[in-house]
Amino acid sequence: MHWDTLVNQFGELTVTGLAQGAIYALVALGYTLVYGVLRLINFAHSEVFVVGTFATILTLRMVGIGPDEPIPGMLAVIGIVTLALLISALASAGTAVVVERIAYRPLRRRNAPPLVFLISAIGASLLIQELIALFLGRDYEPVGNLVKPSVQFSIFGADVTNRQILMVAAAVLMMVGLDTFVGRTRLGRGIRAVSQNPDAAALMGVNKDRVIALTFVLGGLMAGVAAVLYDLNFGVTRFSAGFLIGLKAFTAAVLGGIGNLRGALLGGLLLGLVENWGSALIGAQWRDVIAFVFLIAVLMVRPSGILGESLTKARA
Amino acid sequence: MTDTPVVPSSRTGAIGEWRARFSAAPGWVKLLVAAAFVALIAALPVIDPPLLTTPESAFVAVLFSVGIYALCAIGLNIVVGMAGLLDLGYVGFFATGAYTVAVFGSPKSELGTGWPWLACVPLAVAVSMLAGVLLGWPTLRLRGDYLAIVTLGFGEIVRLTAVNWGQLGNMAGIAQVPRPPGKRSDGSKLFSIIDVKPFFWLVLAAVLLVLVLVSNLERSRVGRSWLAIREDEDAAELMGVPTFRFKLWAFACGAAVGGLSGAIYASYQQFVNPESFPVQTSMMFLAAVLIGGAGNKYGVVLGAVIVYYTPERLRSLDDSLVITWYVVLVAAAALWVWTNRRPGPAGRARRWWLGPAVTVAVLALLPVLLKELPTWFGDRGKIDQLRFLMFGAALIVMSVFRPQGLLPNRRRATELADRAKEVEAGVNA
Q1: How far, CA to CA in Å, does B423 sit from each of A314, B64, B428?
Q2: B283 Rama sector, left if φ>0, alpha if ψ -120 to 50, beta otherwise
Q3: Do A286 and B279 touch (CB under 8 A)?
Q4: Count of A–B CB contacts within 8 Å?
Q5: Residue A153, beta-bridge partner list
């Protein structure tokens, strides 16, 4: 137990924890959306995220940003990041829709039991991972160095870099956008209706299949944004990178209350903090174990999460 | 045996007729047939049959690994197939068994007890069982889908503990795991690296033993409770089945079999390290159970054979082309029998030929594709790299078209068919 490390570096640990938690939160939104509508853990969502990380790398390479290139000017960086966000989000959303069409929709038609859905999801997850490995290899892929970390300001003795601001801001912004979309638009109303009662919604003229596809698109978009942030932050990705992120994002979703959008944000940030504080306390090599044990503890104590499990009450 | 078939169609057609005749035969005939079959399997490494043998890796070693997989598949089947709980971290129990033998048996471990293998095996089974209870106690009250993700985390916790805990040897693991006792007539050790056959017979014996135990369990009060839980947990609880206790039992029994498998595996390898227990192995076990047919203990053994043996066999493609075509022919014939025995619901033209036609086409294209992939992707396109790709695809295809598996459990297949019919009838659309 290194209490002194935890106390001395508390500010710094908190800032980095929040930045990492932002990624968990964005991926968690995808789990939560799909769970809210289909009552299904979309195991393939972690791979939807990984597709985004690779789309980002390929985009950066296309515009000529490799790991060894110098960093371009400010305006160019903003342009390139925007482009990467766009392409990554589209790639992830596209993958999510394909997964839904191939692995889930046929099962819905057959009224398959939940276990079969899970198995199909695991199959989809394996398949995407291995397709990436087949086409792009199993090695770590370095990402172009695009946003150089520079300290912007200090708070409670902790330095805050531009990257960390970008990550947390992006997560909060996407979250607010999604929350507004689900809560205020016509399409969002469809999502809430289906999550409340699919049959009644269908009787009221909601196109169930289209709503479900829409939730996958939204989740994919969030994962794509998270993927860009992940690439910028860690500078490297791999075909199997989704496993850990996926598990942790799911933990975040459960922590906040699965099916609850705001809960996903809260859970993600909280998990990032707990993980960072815990690894300072016990040792960095136990980081992932801390996250999993935390998940089990949360499920035991409060399985419905901090904010409760309702997609529809997210705006209450 | 006089049972009224639950699914009438499963007892018609050429295959069904033979099955019916077999189950009507007197006990000693069944025993004789089974004994002959087992003897044939046991003789496989000695005969080394030309078409079945694996050209690129030692046939005995492959058979041994198939046995290890079969053991794990039977154990996992208790949890997934019989009790209907999804366990994605089964490799954790396998690793627990292996590490227990290493820690208590190896002179290299820091504990330094150096117990013989025979003493370590029951201990490994007990420790794995305990691990199953410890994992199940907090998590089995959860919903099924939460359970899946928690067990996934558990498998990873076990691996990370092995990596990070100094006493377990970190990445290097523990060497000099004890081997089973026994000497040959010339005084050399019976279980050694020089001749792996005894290991295969050992695992075969373990598979048979566990099969007998499991079929007894199936027909006991415990087995009936598992079945009730699988079909409808709430209904089971209402009928007075203490569901939590029996789910915990399922976890413990499944874990025990996994531990036994790990104990045999560790003594075969003679060392354990975290690299032998990645998450993907859990997926392989699960694929074996689901492809073979969850709930059917013979089905999951078939699944283990498919999951481990097939990729090994297909490694050398020159003569496996022959065997693949042969498999295609057999599959075509089997599918023909299978589809023709179905009358199909009245009033609705079934495109009965579509499924078999697509299956046969895919199977026929597979060897061509496998031959071409290495030229397109280099080493990445080789068969041992494609294993998980194929299993991922197989899991989706099976979930959509044949969720009951290749050799289904009849009761489970009926339930699945019923649910599909409800959609057709518009009950639950």
Answers
A1: 32, 44, 6
A2: alpha
A3: no
A4: 144
A5: A160
User: Which residue on chain A is closest to B154 by alpha carbon?
Assistant: A292
Cβ contacts of B1 within 8 Å, gap of 6 or more: B23, B24
Mean pLDDT of chain B: 79
Give the residue carrying structure tokens 């056959």.
B197
Which residue shows structure tokens 């959860």? B142
Cα first-last separation, chain B: 39
- State how far residue B145 is from chain A, nearest Cα, in angstroms: 7
What is the residue whose two structure tokens read 């990554």? A88
CA atoms within 13 A on the CB side of B85: 35
Q: B362 CB contacts (<8 Å, ≥6 apart)?
A: none
**pTM for the whole structure:** 0.82
Q: Look at the block and give the residue holding tokens 């289909």.
A: A38
Q: Give CA–CA dist B304/B389, Å, rounded.
A: 17
What average pLDDT does range B187-206 have in this prediction? 81
Q: Enter the tokens of residue B19.
A: 């099955």
A77 touches A146 (CB < 8 A): yes
Give the chain B residue nearest A304 (alpha carbons).
B142
Nearest to B395 by CA among B250, B266, B260, B286: B286
Residue of A nearest to B80 (CA): A115
Structure tokens at B163: 């990596």
CA-to-CA separations, B146 to A187, B88, B153, B338, in angstroms, rounded: 29, 11, 11, 37
d(CA A249, CA B400): 27
Roughly how many angstroms between the first and final C-alpha of chain A, as a whole number?
Answer: 42
DSSP annotation string for A129-186: HHHHHHHH-SS-EE----S---EEEEETTEEEEHHHHHHHHHHHHHHHHHHHHHHHSH
CB contact under 8 A, A285 and B163: yes
Alpha carbons B231 and B245: distance in angstroms, whole number: 17
Encoded tokens for A192: 């809430």
Neighbours of A186 (CB within 10 A): 6
What's the pLDDT tens digit per position in B259-278? Answer: 999 999 988 888 888 888 88
For residue A43, the one-letter residue type is: F
State the pLDDT confidence band at A86, using cuts at 50, 70 and 90. Answer: very high
A202 in Cβ contact with A212 (< 8 Å): no
Q: Is the Cα torsion angle B177, B181, B187, B189 positive or negative in sign?
A: negative
